[in-house]
Design brief:
By secondary structure, this protein is of the alpha+beta class. It contains five helices and three strands, in the order ααααβαββ. Strands 1-3-2 form a three-stranded antiparallel β-sheet. The mean pLDDT is 95.
């Protein structure tokens, strides 16, 4: 479990960078939502394969990683299943997310539905 907790925390910090706590919580919710939905694996390791970034974990990311590894349903809210960067959105021609978190010139988009074509 320690390895999964750390993998989740490293991924959360990498996906969010300077966007901070609000972003880490939002991305953690997308992970939890996936684990509680039949369309994705019900285990954290399986869900983490859909996220690509990594960075040194923040304290918040470590705490969220613990919750994801031990009780993901506590974070699941069924709102967003996809998290994607502003750069990916522009490059791929994807729509703006239903929720957008921006800071330091970066944006993360959150969506309930797949935005790809």
């Amino acid at each position: 479990m320690t390895a999964l907790l750390l993998a989740a925390a490293v991924t959360l910090s990498g996906e969010c960078g300077p966007l901070g706590v609000e972003c880490e919580l939002a991305v953690a919710r997308t992970m939890a939502n996936r684990m509680t939905d039949d369309r994705w694996p019900d285990d954290l390791g399986g869900v983490l394969t859909g996220y690509y970034a990594s960075a040194a974990p923040t304290d918040t990311a470590l705490a969220l990683g613990y919750v994801l590894a031990t009780m993901p349903r506590a974070l699941a809210n069924g709102e967003h299943y996809y998290a994607y960067s502003d750069a990916d959105r522009a490059r791929m021609g994807w729509a703006v997310g239903e929720q957008t978190i921006c800071k330091a010139g970066l944006c993360l988009h959150l969506s309930e539905r797949w935005m790809g074509r």
